UniProtKB/TrEMBL annotation:
Domain N-acetyltransferase: start-end pairs: 15-185
InterPro entries attached to this UniProt entry: Acyl_CoA_acyltransferase (IPR016181), GNAT_dom (IPR000182), N-acetyltransferase (IPR051531)
Organism: Bdellovibrio reynosensis
Similarity comment: family membership: Belongs to the acetyltransferase family. RimJ subfamily.
One matching Pfam family: Acetyltransf_3
Keyword match Ribosomal protein: no
Identification of the protein by name: GNAT family N-acetyltransferase
PANTHER family documented for this protein: [RIBOSOMAL PROTEIN US5]-ALANINE N-ACETYLTRANSFERASE, GNAT FAMILY, PUTATIVE (AFU_ORTHOLOGUE AFUA_3G00765)-RELATED-RELATED
Keyword hit for Acyltransferase: yes
Length: 185
């Protein structure tokens, strides 16, 4: 297994990117309960109160920690520096080591915070974590061809379009084509 350089934490001009901690419960619950109605087909709705309990949060933290220990999946909260509010998540997922040294990048800014450039800023930080701290060689993002804002984010952080993967993901009970964007170290 690769040597992981800790801490898995990154500050940008306006943001802090880090794993969630137990003291983040109130911030997490508020973030997931205060979303506006979905703005597009990739957006998420506010969670039901039954999903936002302290017990569910503890289970979520345990699951995230297990995935980090397995060097398989790194989930980071995106926090604003000025007020500490959780505004989204960025993930390095399905990490493959060996001859591949690859991860998939996923990101979500909660819809009350759209339009401020937070996705680009957070994803740039995640790419630095991927290449410096996790010593990955390649990071990919799979994006629906109609998701123009996400494509704009991928291009802004230096990912290049590699092609179209037909019927790659099953979303809303139907198989969808996904464009692959990637960057190597």
């Amino acid at each position: 297994m690769k040597s992981i350089i800790l801490p898995l934490y990154k500050e940008t001009k306006r943001l802090i990117i880090r794993p969630l901690e137990s003291f983040d419960y109130e911030n997490w619950a508020q973030a997931y309960s205060n979303m506006h109605p979905p703005q597009n087909e990739w957006d998420e709705t506010a969670w039901d109160d039954s999903e936002l309990t302290k017990q569910k949060f503890k289970e979520h933290l345990k699951f995230e920690k297990q995935n980090r220990l397995k060097d398989h999946f790194y989930d980071f909260g995106i926090f604003r520096k000025d007020d500490g509010v959780l505004i989204g998540t960025v993930k390095l997922m399905d990490i493959s080591r060996g001859i591949f040294q690859n991860a998939y990048l996923g990101y979500r800014i909660f819809n009350p915070y759209w339009g401020n450039g937070y996705a680009q800023e957070a994803c740039k930080a995640a790419m630095q974590i991927a290449f410096k701290n996790l010593d990955l060689h390649r990071v990919e993002a799979g994006i629906a061809p109609k998701n123009k804002k996400s494509i704009k984010t991928a291009l802004a952080i230096g990912l290049k379009k590699e092609g179209l993967s037909k019927k790659r993901l099953k979303v809303n009970n139907r198989w969808q084509d996904i464009e692959i964007y990637a960057k190597t170290k």
